């Protein structure tokens, strides 16, 4: 007797994995595997950079603009060499992006723009530009300045500017003081005896000897107002010490004496060639 033919089990369809591959500059995303339809193709979206005023060169104080030709922008990220992001937003129709803050002078900005062309193809483009140098600069002086520079226990840290600071909010946002022993304080603006703009950081309570202090002014590229920019960052690191000079009163160096003036010891300073750190008492205020 002949055997009936064996029945074959139906093959199960294999599940295909959908993979998305971004193609920089081509403005497309391709799909593969399964029965997925290929992503729509089309020409790449052309991305251009410039000033919001329409010029190619971005001057100090200009706002940066990213434009798309042959499609739209779906996202833009602009960063400086430190990785700090320049905030901004897309315009109507999503064919342009404009920064909300001014571009810093003499700074190379890297741009990653995500795009979608007329056929729906998505992609990304990378561009970069360097802004022009500032025509006018502002500089500053820091106090305290050197080892042995005596300072009262409640004396503030001071910054004196060579030119007026009209955008004080922006400048103050870039200033910081850190100290151990949980020291806190606040900024206060005024004038020094020569009439120059000055900002003081005053501790909430008298300095404690041995306190380590760091004054930071991250001002590189910041407009102080009136088109005058800072071209450097500044750091001042020091320790609050104790007066340590022998005298006929029989003081012993290193011992704790109530009423001893505290002093600044082991300072270090970071900044450019224009960074002149001097004590307020050393200024020739006339």
Strand-helix topology:
Layout: E1 21-23, E2 28-30, E3 46-51, E4 64-69, E5 71-79, E6 88-90, E7 96-99, E8 108-117, E9 122-130, E10 136-137, E11 140-143, E12 150-151, E13 157-161, H1 168-173, E14 175-179, E15 185-191, E16 197-203, E17 212-217, E18 223-225, E19 228-229, E20 234-240, E21 262-270
Parallel strand pairs: 10-19
Antiparallel strand pairs: 1-2, 3-4, 4-7, 5-8, 6-7, 8-9, 11-13, 12-21, 13-16, 14-17, 15-16, 17-20, 18-19, 20-21
Task: Explain the overall architecture.
The protein has 286 residues and is mainly beta. It has two domains: 21-130, Immunoglobulin-like; 136-282, Immunoglobulin-like. It is 2% helix and 39% strand. The protein contains one helix and 21 strands. The strands form six sheets. A five-stranded antiparallel β-sheet has the order 12-21-20-17-14. A four-stranded antiparallel β-sheet has the order 3-4-7-6, with no helix packed on it. A hairpin with a 5-residue loop joins β15 (185-191) and β16. The longest helix is centred in the middle third of the chain and has 6 residues, at 168-173. The protein is elongated and about 75 Å long.
* Biggest pleated-sheet summary: 5 strands, antiparallel
Strand order of the largest sheet: 12-21-20-17-14
Poorly predicted sequence stretches spanning 5 or more consecutive residues = 5-39, 246-259, 273-286
What is the count of DSSP helices, taking H or I runs of 4+ residues?
1
Radius of gyration equals 31 Å
Work out the strand percent: 35-45%
CATH architecture of the largest domain: Sandwich
**What is the chain-wise order of helices and strands?**
EEEEEEEEEEEEEHEEEEEEEE
The third-level CATH topology of the largest domain is Immunoglobulin-like
Helicity level:
under 10%
Principal-axes shape call? elongated
| Number of self-contained structural domains | 2
Question: What is the top-level CATH class of the largest domain?
Answer: Mainly Beta
Overall structural class, as computed from helix and strand content, comes to mainly beta
Question: Could you tell me how far the N terminus lies from the C terminus, measured between alpha carbons in angstroms?
Answer: 127 Å
Mean pLDDT: 75
What is the β-strand count?
A: 21
């Amino acid at each position: 007797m002949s055997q009936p033919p064996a029945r074959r089990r139906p093959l199960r369809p294999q599940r295909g994995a959908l993979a998305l591959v971004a193609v920089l500059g081509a403005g497309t995303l391709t799909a593969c595997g399964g029965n997925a339809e290929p992503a729509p193709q089309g020409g790449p979206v052309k991305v251009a950079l410039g000033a919001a005023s329409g010029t190619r060169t971005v001057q100090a104080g200009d706002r940066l603009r990213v434009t798309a030709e042959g499609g739209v922008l779906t996202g833009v990220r602009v960063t400086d060499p430190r990785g700090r992001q320049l905030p901004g937003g897309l315009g109507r129709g999503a064919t342009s992006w404009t920064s909300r803050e001014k571009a810093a002078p003499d700074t190379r900005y890297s741009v990653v723009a995500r795009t979608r062309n007329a056929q729906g193809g998505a992609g990304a483009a990378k561009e970069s530009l360097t802004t022009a140098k500032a025509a006018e600069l502002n500089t500053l002086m820091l106090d305290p300045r050197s080892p042995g520079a005596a300072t009262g226990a409640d004396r503030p840290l001071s910054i004196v500017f060579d030119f007026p600071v009209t955008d004080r909010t922006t400048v103050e946002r870039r200033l910081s003081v850190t100290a151990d022993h949980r020291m806190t304080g606040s900024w206060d603006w005024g004038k020094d005896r020569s009439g120059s703009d000055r900002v003081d950081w005053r501790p909430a309570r008298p300095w404690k000897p041995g306190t380590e202090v760091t004054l930071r002014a991250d001002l590189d590229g910041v407009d102080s107002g009136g088109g005058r920019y800072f071209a450097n960052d500044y750091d001042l690191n020091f320790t609050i010490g104790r007066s340590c000079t022998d005298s006929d009163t029989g003081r012993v160096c290193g011992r704790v004496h109530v009423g001893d003036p505290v002093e600044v010891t082991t300072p270090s300073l970071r900044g450019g060639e224009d960074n002149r750190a001097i004590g307020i008492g050393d200024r020739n205020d006339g």
